[in-house]
């Protein structure tokens, strides 16, 4: 893991200062009756304040598990083991006590979930839930918290916030509900905001509004944002850096512009190829990544992507026997193909079809 | 809301009417059709034909069945007179007739039974809800541990063991062997609260054990399901202490389905806990019902059935109204 070079990725100040959030060699395992689920294996990344990291990958690639690990939400699951290091503002979280992490959760670091209908409690008003979130971290009266909550609802663009304060989640429209969710996450001015597919359940026009909102709020509060999504459009729109995950591992990492313009990993090529684009000539069909995501209990040997990789076997058995490491500087990739070959394949075979 | 309430009340009245009709039909009409004679039940087999005829006229047993039913309904609403020539007996509304056996008016008889049954049901309900829910929550949180298994085994025993076994056992141990408690008996609360309590504690515990078991299992299952919900993860992500996450966000969602079950159980129990009252010799509605059935005392059976139906209908209405308070997604209408 070339984590040391990571500090230089976003901090020009040099390696002496730790990035605001630094995750090193994070590994998450779940013991189940069927076997050990290797949900995340040795993933490393960093985010600075005011920057946005996009994590992309298909379902089951370990995106959400990674973010829940940062928040320490696996601690309540007795079958989960988390190892590695998570540094938030020079504090290590994996070894910290439950109580220490709980105090950071919702305060210094907060999370926006997908599907706000099920993420909000059906029996409490939206206002009550925001007030509760505020009062866990601030010793204020209910009245003050109420003022703050209404202020937040107005800030995220909910009309008539005093009235909506007393309504329940099911009385909100999808977009308004996600705004309320964002208001709840931001009520304590978190320095790290994790958004887990915040726009998945929303229609396109509302998606754009929500993304704008997150960007505006990020600029206002200077927070670090981790945007988890399987929508590359969202990443292209918001992210400074991109992490591509596959089978619980980071397989490509780099500045968003590099990853989009010179993608290195065959899986990233596949993702880009399966993305509908209006700015290119219309093709008959999109090119999906063939095959299905790997089982996290029985990961394929060698490179987890080899059963679906059209280039596997180009250099002997390596793809089948040896797990590729994430190599490279600012723009790193975990692939057995030599850099020159990748360059050639991308230019000749992949790029013309994107 | 108001129109909903009115509609529900009208519905309840219709339900009760149907209940009286069916019960009346079974208990009064069937003997007439099959040739057995209610008048004989009333007066006994040794009666001479003249007094038998007199009873028949007085109770209106000569009338066609629909007329008898009409008179019964009128008696409920406005009271009625039983007349045989100059011999008139007035029965105030709500009149349920006279017991065939004791010749007492049924209504006051049953009303005097209600406090016993009510005391038994309320006391037991408080116990089983507290212990059932607490056990269920603990079991869910300690899922798979020894505590969970022990609690669920106990609950299985509670569900499986009949009252007449656990009740007798409790009587034997706590009253006869250890002598910790006086004989189970009903003392009116206002007369002697301590006596009321000590006289009922054993029936409460026995009855509660049966129900607590069901509630523990139900709570455990609901809690496990709820803990997997997204809003519980949200509550944790806000940094709430685990106590608040479980006790507030979790329990709130678990209680909703319990209210429905509780309404049904409690309503049924108010109609008389037949076995418990029998085992502990408490003269409540259930005891009365069993005695009446044994003695073929038709008016008392009819009366108990009607009161039972009223309790169940009313409790169901209350539960439905409560539901709109508990679950904001439910709109009445």
From TrEMBL, chain A:
Pfam families: ABC_tran, oligo_HPY
UniProt xrefs under CDD domains: ABC_NikE_OppD_transporters
Residues annotated as domain ABC transporter: 21-272
Annotated compartments: Cell membrane
Keyword Cell membrane: yes
Assigned keywords, A-Z: ATP-binding, Cell membrane, Membrane, Nucleotide-binding, Transport
Topology versus the membrane: Peripheral membrane protein
InterPro entries documented for this protein: AAA+_ATPase, ABC_Ni/Peptide_Import, ABC_transporter-like_ATP-bd, ABC_transporter-like_CS, Oligopep_ABC_C, P-loop_NTPase
MF (Gene Ontology): ATP binding
PANTHER family tied to this protein: DIPEPTIDE TRANSPORT ATP-BINDING PROTEIN DPPD (PTHR43297:SF2), OLIGOPEPTIDE TRANSPORT ATP-BINDING PROTEIN APPD (PTHR43297)
Family under the similarity heading: Belongs to the ABC transporter superfamily.
NCBIfam families (UniProt xref): oligo_HPY
Protein name: Dipeptide/oligopeptide/nickel ABC transporter ATP-binding protein
Organism the protein comes from: Winogradskya humida
Automatic annotation (TrEMBL), chain B:
GO biological process per UniProt: transmembrane transport
Segments forming a coiled coil: none
One Pfam family, short name: BPD_transp_1_N
Transport listed as a keyword: yes
Localization (cell): Cell membrane
One term under GO cellular component: plasma membrane
Domain ABC transmembrane type-1: 114-323
Family per record: Belongs to the binding-protein-dependent transport system permease family.
Protein name from the UniProt record: ABC transporter permease
């Amino acid at each position: 893991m070339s984590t040391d070079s990571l500090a230089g990725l976003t901090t020009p100040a040099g390696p002496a200062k730790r990035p605001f959030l630094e995750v090193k060699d994070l590994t998450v395992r779940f013991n189940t009756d069927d076997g050990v689920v290797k949900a995340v294996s040795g993933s490393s990344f960093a985010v600075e304040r005011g920057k946005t990291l996009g994590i992309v990958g298909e379902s089951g690639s370990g995106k959400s598990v990674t973010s829940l690990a940062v928040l320490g939400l696996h601690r309540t699951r007795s079958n989960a083991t988390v190892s590695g290091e998570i540094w938030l503002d020079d504090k290590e979280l994996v070894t910290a006590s439950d109580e220490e992490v709980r105090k950071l959760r919702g305060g210094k670091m907060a999370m926006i979930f997908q599907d706000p209908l099920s993420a909000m409690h059906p029996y409490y008003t939206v206002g009550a839930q925001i007030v509760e979130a505020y009062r866990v971290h601030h010793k204020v009266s209910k009245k003050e918290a109420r003022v703050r909550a209404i202020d937040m609802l107005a800030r995220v663009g909910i009309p008539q916030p005093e009235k909506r304060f007393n309504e329940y989640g099911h009385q909100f429209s999808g977009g308004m509900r996600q705004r309320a969710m964002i208001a709840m996450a931001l009520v304590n001015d978190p320095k790290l905001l994790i958004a887990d597919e915040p726009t998945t359940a929303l229609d396109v026009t509302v998606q754009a509004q929500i993304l704008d909102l997150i960007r505006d709020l990020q600029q206002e509060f200077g927070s670090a944002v981790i945007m988890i999504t399987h929508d590359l459009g969202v990443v292209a729109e918001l992210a400074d850096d991109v992490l591509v995950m596959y089978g619980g591992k980071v397989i490509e990492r780099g500045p968003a512009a590099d990853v989009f313009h010179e993608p290195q990993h065959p899986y990233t090529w596949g993702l880009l190829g399966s993305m509908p684009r209006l700015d290119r000539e219309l093709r008959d069909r999109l090119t999906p990544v063939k095959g299905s995501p790997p089982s996290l209990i029985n990961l394929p040997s060698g490179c987890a992507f080899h059963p679906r990789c059209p280039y596997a076997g180009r250099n002997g058995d390596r793809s089948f026997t040896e797990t590729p490491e994430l190599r490279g500087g600012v723009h790193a990739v975990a692939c057995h193909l030599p850099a020159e070959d990748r360059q050639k394949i991308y230019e000749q075979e992949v790029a013309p079809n994107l | 809301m108001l129109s909903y309430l009115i509609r529900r009340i009208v519905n309840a009245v219709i339900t009760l009417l149907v209940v009286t009709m069916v019960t009346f039909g079974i208990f009064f009409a069937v003997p007439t059709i099959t040739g057995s004679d209610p008048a004989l039940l009333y007066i006994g087999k040794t009666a001479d034909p003249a007094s038998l005829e007199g009873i028949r006229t007085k109770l209106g047993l000569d009338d066609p069945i629909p007329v008898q039913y009409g008179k019964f309904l009128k008696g409920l609403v406005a009271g009625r007179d039983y007349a045989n020539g100059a011999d008139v007996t007035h029965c105030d509304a709500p009149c349920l007739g006279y017991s065939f056996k004791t010749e007492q008016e049924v209504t006051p008889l049953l009303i005097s039974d209600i406090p016993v049954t009510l005391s038994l049901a309320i006391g037991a309900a408080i116990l089983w809800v507290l212990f059932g829910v607490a056990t269920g929550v603990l079991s869910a949180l300690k899922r798979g541990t020894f505590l969970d298994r022990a609690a669920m085994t106990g609950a299985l025993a509670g569900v499986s063991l009949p009252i007449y076994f656990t009740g007798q056992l409790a009587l034997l141990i706590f009253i006869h062997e250890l002598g910790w408690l006086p004989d189970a008996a009903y003392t009116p609360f206002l007369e002697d609260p301590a006596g009321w309590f000590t006289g009922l504690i054993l029936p409460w515990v026995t009855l509660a054990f049966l129900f607590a078991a069901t509630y523990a299992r139900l709570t455990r299952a609901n809690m496990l399901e709820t803990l997997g919900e997204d809003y519980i993860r949200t509550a944790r992500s806000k940094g709430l202490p685990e106590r608040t996450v479980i006790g507030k966000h979790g329990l709130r969602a678990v209680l909703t389905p319990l209210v429905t079950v509780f309404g049904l159980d409690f309503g049924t129990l108010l109609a008389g806990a037949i076995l418990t009252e029998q085992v502990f010799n408490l003269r409540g509605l259930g005891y009365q019902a069993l005695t009446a059935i044994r003695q073929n005392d038709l008016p008392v059976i009819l009366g108990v059935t009607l009161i039972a139906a009223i309790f169940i209908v009313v409790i169901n209405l209350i539960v439905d109204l409560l539901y709109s308070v508990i679950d904001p997604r439910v709109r009445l209408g």
